[in-house]
Amino acid sequence: MTMQLASMVHGSGREPEVYDHRRLHHHQHQTQQHPQHHPQQHHLPQQQHPSHPQHHQRSHSQSHSHYYSQPPQPRAYGAPAAAAQGPYPSRPSAAEQYQRPPQSPPSPPVEEQKPLLPSISSLLTIAGSERAQAERATQSPTSQRHPSPTLKQEQQRVPASSFSHRPSSPQHSDGRPDHVPRAFGSSAVSNARMTLPPTPPMHAEPAADGNQSPSAASTHSATPYFLGQSLNNMEPHQQRQHHPSAPVVKRHPDAPQSSMSPYTTSPYGHSPYASSPGGASGASYYSPEPHYNAGMYAQRPLPPNFDPQTMAVSAPGPPPSGPGLWQHHHYISASSQSAFPQPQERYVCPTCAKAFSRPSSLRIHSHSHTGEKPYKCTQPGCGKAFSVRSNMKRHERGCHASASTNTTAS
DNA sequence: ATCTCTGTTTCG
DNA sequence: CGAAACAGAGA
User: Fold this and answer.
1) Alpha carbon A105 to chain centroid distance?
2) Which of chain C's bases lie under 7 Å from a protein CB?
3) Are the CB atoms for A119 and A127 separated by under 8 Å?
4) Domains of chain A with CATH codes
5) What pLDDT is stored for residue A354 in this prediction?
6) What average pLDDT score do residues A380-404 get?
């Protein structure tokens, strides 16, 4: 068992680093596809689309959108992680928010903080403890596993809500707080143990190896979503911490996804808005979106065929990381899946974690966070501005009906 | 064939 | 009015 556990851990450990890589990679693909179906109506999990995103940089679109034409303001959270953050006065940059482990973000009610995986550390710990217990049959009261620092971190960031169910596992007599994460881990682990004591194949492993555990498979549909979530959640640095030694990031050949790379680079990363007038050199892509980048995780469209395995394995850079995560998510996902956005909603707002099916939707949504109102009423006397073009139009129609017809129409 | 954008509609 | 979902069109 211990071995198994250990292996699991390792597996998860590797991924952590991935996250950052994506930015490093050149970015090109951004996105991708998303079926445009309405999730609500059809809950079909998008089937994996065979084709991958091409490096679409929505070049054409940029030009027409008024959106782009506006000088974006501050790069909002934009500053990519590297750059800086500081964008919004009132709100901490997305990056910041996410980075902070403690405290739950103000906004995300729904997704809240996505479920995080139990940290590897925890797993290890558990494993270790278990092992010890097994050997000694639980004799030594000496606390075998005390929460490792990393562990704690993870715990903190984990949304209790997700794992709330987590009970303290009796088996582990740890006096730990009910931190969710651990709980999760413990529960999972304990579960594994309980149910399949000898069973080696935990969920984690499969993913890493490329085999998905059956259970995992079942949850596929949900995964995408989680992925996004996890992205948001995962703090790069945290991940790293956990597995410093982890080799990680390896894009395995097995991942057929040459195209998978979408993850490698954040979609918004540079392309779309890059051409923006604002022209802030690389740092400011364009406007509101920039922060996504900053967040890095933000909205990477989930690949059509995103497979947990692939992601984990090949994902060069997915922040989230890895197989381990995946697995964890799976567990959680089962219960919370329904609540989460549909698989199609791959574009996740870094700020509030809300998911959208289209990049444009996310963009618009970002306005709500930034307060940006790029659409101004064309009427001379009216200086109203709107964050959503449609709303502006509506306003014109309603308020300036007679006049607007001319102006807007033309 | 696929993806994104725009516009309309709907909800809070 | 703000924001999101839905539906259609264009690239």
Assistant:
1) 15
2) 1-9, 11
3) no
4) 347-400 (3.30.160.60)
5) 79
6) 75
